[in-house]
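Homework-ish question, so no full write-ups if that breaks the rules, but can someone show me the predicted structure for this set?
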Amino acid sequence: MRSLVAQARRPLRRLLQPTFGSAYVVVVGGFGRYSWPATVAVLCPAAGVLLIAWRGDLNQPAASRKLDPIGAIAWASVFVALAIWELTELLLQPSLRTDSYAHPTISVLTDPVLATHLGRSIVLSLWLALGWFLVQR
Amino acid sequence: MTSRQVALGVYTLIVLAGVLLQLNSQRSSSRIPSLGTVFSRVMRTRSGRIGVVAGWAWLGLHFFAR
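A: Not a homework solution, just the prediction itself:
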């Protein structure tokens, strides 16, 4: 009986998750950027995923081998390079709080996209998808 | 070449490097792990999980929240 219920839950979960997710990004994408509703709406899933990360992974991971040092260094280099370049552009701005056309940070580059409801909804869905990807690790 | 073009060029090169690494990781004899494998390895410990998820949460807060 329990296995039947569990089996019935899976397609329902598969239907509800994208439906809820779509509704979430459409509604929250309509909130003004840097507004309190947007802040709360982002804090809630962030706090939930942090709690899941604290308690442990949802899925038992397969025993993972050690990473090849070459591969680890390669990926680390990409992330470090991105961080250093972003910091460089930030410091080349007139001030930390003044955007610069000549030295754009990632935030400045995404401003035109995030200025619209559709843009915010798309970026929110990507952010949620990334969070879901991380939770599955 | 303007400063903006240089900046955009560097961002593009970094993203391309990541894409190339990911494509390379798909080869059977590759020593480069996929990005998913890297995250799985990092997130095996609690501190790794919290660090990565905190970075993800910060991204959302940085772009949308106060």
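Now go work out the reasoning yourself. Hint: Chain A touches chain B through 54 residues (CB under 8 Å).
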